[in-house]
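Supplementary Data S3. Sequence and structure tokens for construct A.
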Amino acid sequence: MTEKTLRKGNEALAEGAIRAGARFFAGYPITPQNEVPEYMAAYMADAGGSFVQAESEIAAINMVYGAAATGTRSMTSSSSPGISLKQEGITYLASADLPCLIVNVMRGGPGLGSISGAQGDYFQATRGGGNGDYHVIVLAPNSVEELGNFPKLGFELAEKYRMPCMILADGILGQMMESMAFNFDPVDPNKLGKFDWAVDIHKNGRAKNNVFSYKGDNLIADVVERAKRYGLIEQSEARFEERC
């Protein structure tokens, strides 16, 4: 727990992700989320991680695919049309059962739309924006404080269920300033342990791990298994705050 300080939403999100153990970030500039990669560019290396400004949104999500396959807490962020460009890569992450964090600081649309805040990407996020039978876990913060604290929860849920998690924010929340505190101690990713599925140095100590998004004849069984997993998440992980 930290003392409350005044922070901008996007910067709180980025700092929260680093505190939560994120050690790889790949992204591409787009308003109104630009403070996220700017913050990562300034501070990720100090945390022992890697920041990459990719040549496109498509490149960024595929870089996340590669980093996530190693078991590294990996993430990307963008705003609405940029997230649309990432959809194919997100489906590959879902198909490969890889955990990662994806942040959408929504802008108005359709198309390029405007840089003002909007909530038009709700169905894209919650119903699966790409092809096939898949979902992502979606966390929707309602304050700067939640925006800063959700990355830890997002990584934990993504790793628990081996699937991507999306934080669905918007331009207003990302740009506003609010007094907030982090409600968790910094996570040391070196103490999280190794995933038995991760692509890593094995030195003949175990069988080689391979991460594939296409599993051939097992596709139907994989889809059925994921559907059961999604049902379990809906039953056991759904959380919300209702106000009248």
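Construct B, processed identically:
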Amino acid sequence: MRKFERRAVLAGGAALGAGALLPGRAFANGGPMGAWTPLADMPFPVQEIYPAPFRKAADPGPSLKPNPLDLLVNAGGLTPAGAFNVTDKVTFYDPAYDAWGFATSLPAPRHHLGLVNNNGFLYGVGGFARDRNGGWQMQAGNWRLTDLKGEWTPMAALPHPQAESVTQSLQGFVHVAGGRSPAGSRNSEWADHIDTDEHWYYDPRDNRWRALAPMLTARNSAAGAVVNGVLYVIGGRTVAGGNTTAVEVYDPLSDRWEKARPMPKAQGGLAAAALNGKIYAFGGEYFDPRPGGVFAESWEYDPDKDQWRAVAAMPRRRHGLGAVKLGEAIYVLGGAAKPSGEETSAALDKFEI
């Protein structure tokens, strides 16, 4: 591996203030920096989300033409208002019109629901329920949605509850890696859970989950992305050690994890997406030193070189946010501007490089 050299950004979004538009600029060495564009706000503020790409219409059947993923969808999350501050609402954004709409609601409210597009279907895995009995009741459920106007169908649940995981589609399977699991019989609050390294995959052909090689580092609130047929798990945090810079890569052909170059900063509660063969990671939060804070930093990872570099910072710093690649851009949405859920955001910004 080459020695990483952190590069300074000429201008960043945090310095320009909320809602600012960052024009495309360059690093001193001539490399691209990226540009941010503010778009239509979400229908309501929401955080602790894992949005996914989807399509405008139901699959018409076998075709030589792929059905494009031209919408982004968010399901559930924590909101500033409503019963127990958790929602069952499903919203979608159409970049062609810079407009939001509502799809069929979840069967039950969830936050931290792992939403993923796999083989043209949306799956909502795990997450937490919240009611008068506790705010972090970890779930093992797995719902599938075929069409935005259709109904969510229960599918095989995880072998046991697991949430705040990385949930990604890889080679036609749904992968759930790391996160948190109940420490014992109690499962109502965040303190009832422990970090896990468990790694499962869901096979839609027989509606079953199976175990795979565990991650090298048990952690939660990490981000994930798939590039060149392998899965990357980026950053996150542990209960004992706080935020981590760890980056690990999983090869499904050998069922093996390896370490990759760590992130430049330890960021938990961040989001990531792949674009043109590279991974972009955004935001996150930290709790130490107190009172903590929220990151505006954005990073680019080049898997071929195993190198990180800074790109244009987010114009609106957030954690518990989502990032979805559509076309030649990444759409970054929701989250909160302060640690632990204060100042929940409805912001949507487009990142281009």
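Helices lie at 13-16. The chain is about 0% helix and 40% strand.
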